[in-house]
Specification:
Keywords: Membrane, Transmembrane, Transmembrane helix. The chain is built from three helices and no strands. The chain is mainly α and 71 residues long.
Length: 71
Amino acid sequence: MWIIAIAVSIFLLLNFLFYVNLNGYVKKEFGKRMWKLFGNKLYFWQSSVFVSLVGTVFIMYVLKCSDILIF
């Protein structure tokens, strides 16, 4: 059960870092008017979830291979 908690916390941390780093860039690049469109927000959050998921899988794999996590 604690492995799931670690994975969820890594996912949320990566998602937060993605949002903090790229939110200002996207608003500046596309403008605040374009940011209000549903499709643009959806694309941003889809990419955020994808990057966070891949990063979480990679970090969990590295932790498993280095015998820090055993599952």
